[in-house]
């Protein structure tokens, strides 16, 4: 796959693994309209790829991301209502896209993750973070609200903790983020993050590609399927998958 021309995002392929690196170090990898547009373009290009099974996200610099750029927020506040909404919707659409990517998504986190960056982590399948990472939903200190990330944060850590963290803008540790469910593994160092990522990639490589995708979709679908339909949905899905070529090949191995 030929990656599109990009300014702050790079994409490299290694077999079934695609690595996406955000490099806006001068702005502490803050999100603005350009970065959101570039990430969206890359992910849409990968969405239907059968070759790509795993996407690894990382950033360049001392921190993962400080979230939304305050300059971008200031500029958006001067727009007319239609363009202001469009600007907010672009971030909301990116978050939804990340959560719904059929591939396994992994994030490698260092330094700090604030605001919208935590929202992105809540959309990921696997988050590996250095033990020194600090987290904070800082929006209310600027008179803003973490609206677009709220559904994903609530889905990840629950409404009770979300209400507290959104209103206090308190800094919390990697250990707390692990307890909340934002982080899946605490790593001793950046080198340890790389080692754990390689181990996770090895584990994923042993699993059937279509089964991984369907299992991920299953979890997402069960959030919205009416309880009365769950039994039929899950039974039909298992019946369909176990007669697939992929399952038959592995069951006979």
Chain-averaged pLDDT: 95
Major beta sheet summary:
6 strands, mixed
Radius of gyration: 19 Å
Judging by the overall fold, what is the CATH architecture of the largest domain?
Alpha-Beta Complex
Report the end-to-end length measured between terminal Cα atoms: 32 Å
Detailed description of the structure:
This protein is of the alpha/beta class and 253 residues long. The protein folds into two domains: 197 residues, 2-enoyl-CoA Hydratase, Chain A, domain 1 (Alpha-Beta Complex), CATH 3.90.226; 43 residues. It contains eleven helices and nine strands. It has a six-stranded mixed beta sheet, sandwiched between helices. It has a three-stranded mixed beta sheet with strand order 5-7-8. Helix 3 runs parallel beside helix 4. The model has no long low-confidence stretch (mean pLDDT 95).
Annotation keywords:
alpha/beta, 2-enoyl-CoA Hydratase, Chain A, domain 1, 11 helices, Enoyl-CoA_hydra/iso, ClpP/crotonase-like_dom_sf, Gamma-carboxygeranoyl-CoA hydratase
Short description:
This protein is an alpha/beta fold and 253 residues long. 49% of the residues lie in helices and 16% in strands.
What layout of secondary structure does this protein have?
Layout: E1 9-14, E2 17-22, H1 33-47, E3 54-59, H2 70-76, H3 81-100, E4 104-109, E5 112-114, H4 116-123, E6 126-130, E7 134-136, H5 150-157, H6 159-168, E8 171-173, H7 174-180, E9 185-187, H8 190-205, H9 209-221, H10 230-242, H11 245-251
Parallel strand pairs: 2-3, 3-4, 4-6, 5-7, 6-9
Antiparallel strand pairs: 1-2, 7-8
């Amino acid at each position: 796959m030929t990656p599109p021309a990009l300014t702050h995002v790079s994409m490299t392929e290694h077999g079934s693994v695609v690595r996406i690196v955000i490099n806006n170090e001068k702005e502490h990898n803050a999100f603005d309209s350009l970065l959101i547009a570039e990430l969206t373009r890359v992910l849409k290009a990968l969405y239907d790829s059968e070759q790509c099974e795993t996407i690894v996200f990382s950033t360049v610099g001392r921190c993962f991301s400080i979230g939304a750029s305050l300059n971008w927020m200031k500029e958006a506040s001067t727009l007319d209502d239609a363009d202001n909404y469009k600007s907010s919707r672009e971030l909301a659409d990116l978050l939804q896209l990340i959560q719904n990517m059929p591939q396994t998504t992994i994030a490698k986190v260092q330094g700090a993750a604030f605001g919208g960056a935590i929202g992105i982590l809540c959309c990921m399948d696997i988050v590996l973070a250095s033990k020194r990472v600090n987290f904070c939903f800082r929006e209310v200190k600027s008179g803003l609200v973490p609206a677009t990330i709220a559904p994903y944060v609530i889905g990840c850590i629950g409404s009770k903790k979300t209400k507290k963290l959104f209103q206090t803008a308190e800094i919390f540790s990697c250990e707390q983020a692990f307890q909340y469910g934002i982080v899946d593994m605490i790593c001793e160092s950046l080198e340890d993050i790389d080692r754990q990522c390689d181990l996770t990639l090895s584990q994923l490589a042993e699993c059937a590609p279509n089964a991984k995708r369907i299992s991920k979709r299953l979890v997402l679908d069960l959030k919205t399927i009416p309880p009365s339909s769950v039994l039929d949905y899950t039974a039909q899905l298992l019946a369909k998958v176990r007669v697939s070529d992929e399952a038959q090949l592995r069951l006979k191995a």
